[in-house]
Amino acid sequence: MTDEHKNEHKKGDIFPYEVDEGSVTDFVDGHFVLVVKDQFWSDEEIELFRQPIDLHFCYTNDLAFFIVEGGPLDSGDFYFNVQECDDKEALLNRDLLSAELLLIDGTNQIRAKRSHDFSKEESRQILELLKKQNETEFMPGEYEVNVEGLQSAYEPYDLEKFSKVSVKL
Fold first, then answer.
1. Which residues of 121-135 are buried (b: 16+ CB within 10 A; e: fewer)?
2. C-alpha angle 147/85/79, rounded to 5°?
């Protein structure tokens, strides 16, 4: 276990960052963290979270995002702008990437967790696209408008066609 993996979040822990209900993505503590916050997660939803879940890293029009399909989420989109990442330099200089998918409740308690360590080739493909995104110059507000446009044109499950890396959690 690497030092970075010691910082991974554990089921039952309190998620250390305050987030609004909905979904959020960031790169923290050496890995992508995809969080879905809801006021309450039922036992049935937690049980569904144990079923296979597909995680897709997608890229189109200089927008990077993860699509999650399966479990209690059915499908969801998690947008990521490397230009707004506080740990951008560390991310872009990594060899291997990993991701965590967390369900947290209204008290910020982690109710369920899935994770994946990307292979060297998967990591290379993701990093190549994030470096491309990093070189893109967005006008003020342009990134958000582009995300809104993509969200209004497609349901999350329709976005899978932009998948560049797909794995099972």
1. ebbebbbebbeebbe
2. 25
Tokens 């490397």 sit on residue:
82
pTM: 0.91
Whole-angstrom distance, CA of residue 104 vs CA of residue 16? 11
pLDDT tens per residue across span 18-66: 899 999 999 998 999 999 999 999 999 999 999 999 999 999 999 999 9
pLDDT tens readout for residues 79-105: 999 999 999 999 999 999 999 999 999
H/E/C letters for each residue in 67-108? EEECHHHCEEEEEECHHHCCCHHHHHCCCCCEEEEEEECCCC
